[in-house]
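Sample entry (92 residues):
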Amino acid sequence: MSLRPKRNEHPGAVAAPSRKRSSAEVAAEREQRAREEEAQENVRDSTFGKAAVLEDSMQQEDEELLSGHAPQATSMKKVSHMRPESRKDSRE
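Predicted structure, serialized as tokens:
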């Protein structure tokens, strides 16, 4: 003997009340979602702003190097930490 193929598996589901959210719950959820999206947008904007500042400073450095305003490596003096007199004394 087998069960009826089209039997009602949950007979109490008809009488059970359906879950409904109140207007206040829906509004609170919308506000929470809006705050989260705004926070994500602020993080994204600040990240892009930092990247733009870094890119601008790198471009400015490149332009200074190409235009010749930056000091050249050949124009810098080499500094010796020991004086020539002290080197002679240490050899003796």
